[in-house]
Amino acid sequence: MPEMTEAERVWEAWFEAYARLRDGHDAPCPDGDGGRLHLTYYGRPGSRIGSVTVWCDLGRNGIFLDRVGIPETVVPLPFDATPEQRASAIPEIRLIPTAMYSPD
Question: What is the pLDDT of residues 65-85, one digit of tens each?
């Protein structure tokens, strides 16, 4: 199996943090800056499938995942939200580029 690149390790750490949060557990910011992670879901009314941005309130880094399940307890931000609605739900962040790890 090929060794992961640094970009792949960073992406994997962020994805693992998302999975822990999604499953109801705490997760530290993968950047190690002590910031708190947040999930902002996006979707269509009545649908429980959408997208999510996972982001850190201190370092302002994060990842975007498409086609995820939206928990029943979450009211997602509509895909057609206004810029003002988006700005109130999530600050300006730097998205970590997708680094797909493909083991042999």
Answer: 999 999 999 999 999 999 999
